[in-house]
Structure formats: structure tokens, C-alpha cells
Amino acid sequence: MPGATSGDFWPRVVVDEASFDFRELSDTDVEHALDQFNNELGILLKGGQEPATYSDYYSVECRDGVELWQLLYERATDVDPDVCRLTSVLFDHCRKWDDDAPAGCMPIDLPENPIPAFSVGYALAMGLRGRAVGCLVFPTCPRRGLMTLNAEPSAVEVVFFAAASEVHKIWRHAFTLENVSEHEFLVVAAFAFPSLIFHSDLRFGKFTGSYAVVRDPVVRILCALNDHFPRVHAECMGLPDDVDAAMGQYGVNLSRESTKTHSNKAAMRQRDVTHKGFQYRCEWHAKIDGYRNRIHFTLPTDGPNGRILIGIFTSHLDV
Q1: What is the pLDDT of residues 156-165, one digit of tens each?
Q2: CA 113 to CA 98: how far, in whole Å?
Q3: Do 122 and 104 contact (CB within 8 A), yes or no?
């Protein structure tokens, strides 16, 4: 996946070779985790994410006296050869980030990790340059989520993840780290919120207030809708007051249109949008401010392909 917000290329995902520490793992544990890793890396490759590795990854000492290349190619353990072979094939399909590494990119030492972290050093260097790069870790590695890495006199947060389904966290981090512009917002949002679909006519200019002020509250609301709304709506059996109360724990104030609004046919038509030739009614809305600025959306069951359609950005519609 390219650095789509700048026009040039850099990998959004690098393989954290420092997470390949097998010293405390049995061969059975390694085989099981390596199989998981292959699955996740394969998904990223098939999905066009273009993950990258350090060109000398195979020299990582995954066990005392055993380098990764020996495990993969010389069968230095009892790990299934087919699993090892698939790992090597997948690595061969990855780009090499150090072909275009920025000046000053250095490996870093991670707490309680005996392996120098070259790829993590790259993610840190890119983060200091305002570019969000995440690290795919081996499943047994405990590094997860946003971690603060120090590079005196500065520090930067880097996303660590083990499942391909979590790659969206890199893009969410990009909103602030890269200061994503209004022009680029929907491009990044498509990656950051995979359970949502965005209408092509969405414009921040429909809100009251500047993009710089409104962007972060919009991101917060979209995170909650993507991650929690379908489950909360089902658990609350669609009861608007219960849904609103339950979503409040995620910092979101939302509601279904009132009975009064539903009785106003002209007002309800304002909630209708056409997406790819089909009409959808966005009768739920999240409130950015108490009295203005709304994000109107469909239920997942009513949206395209069972996903929530974010249909309208507006200061306020008629009631």
C-alpha cells in the first residue's frame, strides 16, 4: 500500500523481524505461530498492501546459534518444511524497505528483545518525518497497538499489529501524524474505516466551522460507528434511546430521527441519498456539536453490502 497521501511511495507495513524470537518456543509452537503469520502476511499481499521486509531479515538469530535462514531453508528444526517454504515464498514477494531508506535510519533496541530492530527503526524514522508506517509482528510477540518509541530528543508513536484485519489502525494514526488534508480525507477514510462506505458527495464545507476544527471529532465518530455501532444496535434491539446511551461510552452522541421528523415527508426526503443507482435513507445521525453539525448514516442492514453508508455531512437538516 503506497504512501497515498503524498504522491511518492513508501511501504505502509513493514515486517518486524525483531519479533522472530523463538528462544522460549517449542518447535510445535513455532510451527503453529508461523502458520498464523503466513496467513496474515498472505492476506496483506493479496490485498495489495505491499508489505516490506528488511533485505537481511534471514540473518536474524531467532534462537541461540540458529539464524532464520537456517530454519527456513536448512530445516534446522522440526518445523514442518511446507510451512517454512511458504514463509520464504511470501518473504520473496515483499518489497525491501531499505532499498529507499531515509538517511539516518538505524536499528533500535527494544525492551526485553534480544534482536536488533531494523524495520522498527525504519518505521520510527518515517514517523519522525510525518509518515505513518506500521509493523507486522510474529503472533507470539507481545507488541501491539500504538507504542511510543524514543529517538532523542524526539519520540513518535508506531502501530504494531499481528492480524491483517488491524491494518486500518495505521491509517487512523495517519490522520494526525500526517495531518491529512481535507482533499485527502475520504481516500484515507476508505482504508481507516473498512466497515463504512462513504458517499462521494460528502464535503466538510457542509459543516459549520473549519476543517481543522471538525476533522478530529469526525474521525472519533467514524471510529465508533465502524467498530461498535452494528454490535450495539443489535444488542439494544434497535431501541434509539438504548443505542444512544450505549454508544455514549465511546464518546458519541447519536440518535434516530424523531417521530416528528418522520411525519414530515419533505424533511425525510432530505435524509435520502443515491449511491451507485440505489436510494438509501440515512435516518440515524451522530452529533458533532450539541446543536449543529451532523453525520447522517444508514443502518448496516440497510446499507450497501451490509455496511454502513455515511451519506450526509451537514450543519443541520430540517425537522
Answers
A1: 999 999 999 9
A2: 22
A3: no
